[in-house]
Write a structure and sequence with these properties.
This protein is an alpha/beta fold. It has helices spanning 43-50, 73-79, 96-106, 112-117, 120-139, 155-167, 185-201, 213-219, 237-242, 244-249; strands at 3-14, 17-28, 32-36, 58-63, 66-67, 81-83, 173-177, 205-209, 222-227, 230-235. The longest helix is centred in the middle third of the chain and has 20 residues, at 120-139. Bound molecules: adenosine-5'-diphosphate and magnesium ion.
């Protein structure tokens, strides 16, 4: 297996808070890697550092052999890393279709004049993007809502729309930040199925932060456990489930 993403000694502080502390791990090509840990453990911070939202205070990150340190978020997206947000971020006044088309159109650069004149080539390009967006909406089960405003959807569906929008940037690595948050067990199970489907269909490597243990246990081939900014354990789901440090840091509260 080849490692697509690697973090070495990554740390991030916010004032006196150590949000990430000397985090080192790799992500294998094609795996679904789970990240679990209590609130405030630094899980989202790891995603923020990977996607260039915050520069790390120390350590290095590389994606497919290219350093991510110092790269802007848009450059990192173009390298093939996409994410969804724990706090949903959509263009709430735009339709689902427009939300997914936006990143598709951003990928095409046809210059100012052709755009203003809406040349035949530009119109063709827009039609193609629309078709592509519709098929991405179909892939996440949102076809019936294509022309509804994003804000009119219930949260569970907005999370799926975020996934479709992330897919529109053509990622090879997809970071999902609590995609099942606020869902009941049945909805969470359906979402697991969807994640597995798009993982196969789009040949993705996936990093998944999630509190629904059944989702994590069902989907992930490997799990990282974070606490107080540090990776305190990693292993296969059945190993992590039995790990003493994990039980006391996290699972113990449910057991
Ligand atoms: N932008 C920020 N400014 C200040 N503190 C932050 C910021 N982002 C995260 N933190 C702090 O860093 C710690 C880790 O947060 P976070 O990565 O969001 O944890 P998790 O996603 O595991 O719940 C928390 O104490 C949080 O309050
Ligand atoms: Mg978080």
């Amino acid at each position: 297996m080849t490692e697509v993403l690697s973090l070495s000694g990554v740390s991030k502080r916010f004032g006196g808070i150590v949000a990430a502390s000397d985090a080192s791990f790799g992500v294998e090509d094609g795996e679904i890697l789970g990240i679990i840990g209590p609130n405030g453990a630094g899980k989202t911070t790891i995603f923020n550092v990977i996607t260039g939202v915050y520069p790390p205070d120390g350590g290095s990150l590389s994606f497919r052999g290219v350093a991510l340190n110092g790269k802007r978020p848009d450059e990192i997206v173009r390298m093939g890393i996409a994410r969804t947000f724990q706090n949903i971020r959509l263009f709430s006044n735009l339709t689902c279709l427009a939300n997914v088309m936006t990143p598709l159109l951003q990928r095409k650069h046809y210059g100012v004049w052709p755009s203003l004149l809406r040349t035949r080539a530009v119109r063709k390009c827009e039609r193609e993007s629309e078709q592509e967006a519709l098929s991405l909406l179909e892939a996440v089960g949102l076809s019936p809502f294509s022309h509804q405003k994003a804000s009119s959807l219930p949260y569970g569906l907005q999370r799926k729309l975020e996934i479709a929008r992330a897919l529109a940037t053509k990622p090879t690595l997809l970071l999902l930040d609590e995609p099942a948050a606020g869902m009941n067990p049945e909805e969470a199970r359906a979402l697991s199925g969807l994640i597995r489907e798009i993982h196969g269909k789009f040949s993705l490597t996936v990093m998944l932060i999630e509190h629904h243990m059944d989702v994590v246990m069902r989907l992930c081939s490997r799990i990282l456990v974070m606490n107080f900014g540090a990776v305190i354990a990693q292993g296969r789901p059945e190993e992590v489930r039995r790990d003493e440090r994990v039980l006391s840091a996290y699972l113990g509260r449910r057991a």
